[in-house]
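User: Sequence in, structure out. Go.
Assistant: Echoing your sequence, followed by the structure tokens.
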Amino acid sequence: MSARSVAIVTDSTAYMPKELLDEYQIHVVSNVVNWGTESYRDGVELTPTQFYERLKTDPTQPTTAVASLGEIRDVYAKAAATAEAVVGIHLSHKLSGTYDAAEQVRREMLADKRIEVVNSLGTAMATGFVVLAAARAAADGAAFEKVIQTARNAIPCCGVVFTVETLEYLRRGGRIGGAQAFIGNLMDVKPILELRDGRVEPVERARTKKKAVARVLELITERVQGRSPVRLATIHAAAHDEAASLLETAKSKLGAVEGFLAEVSPTVGVHTGPGTVGLAWCAGM
């Protein structure tokens, strides 16, 4: 691995495509899925395919946990060994304690290395696009402060809108936010949700999954209007074909300069459930 001025760290909830992690040498903190008496490192000991297959048949409800301080410290130390400084970009502090834990590690390591931790106010590829912007700046040789500013500038340019099969998983995990208002009124309709100010919030409802996915694209079109370039990523939880079709349609409609097909990580999937399909974007960066 070649040395760089700034190394980038994120966490497994971003679940960026492997080719991006490899190309930009991004270090990943693996959060934890607890299932019965067993614990798994997200994306390392439990892949999305394994997770969603088991979720369909296992009556035990999995839970999630932040990686240990030791695990986070090890990842940051490894990143610090490859560069003069480290920028960590993590999911919203309103959804997980990962950002706070990384901040604690930063304070412990600060005497030895220049480290900054950024709260993306997102998750999945909404966080991933913030990470990607910072990683590309670092790869271009940007200084520590410039990489930090690039990440922070990207946050309001990025977001995600998604639909879930049921709100039950969000309710169980306590991540339902304002979407609580949908419960009891859903029947067979499909909720459409977004990350807003770091929380899962309701947007509207659709009668069918097909209409919900189509509406996701319409909403993204409204949100990116007048901004370019546009970058897109579909996210899915065991819904590959729907996500792939959505990505091709969205790229064509919005003239995206690049698009990625990304999975919903197990630690996010615990809260969204199988069948989730969404579209993340970054526009104007």
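User: And one key feature?
Assistant: The first helix runs from residue 18 to 23.
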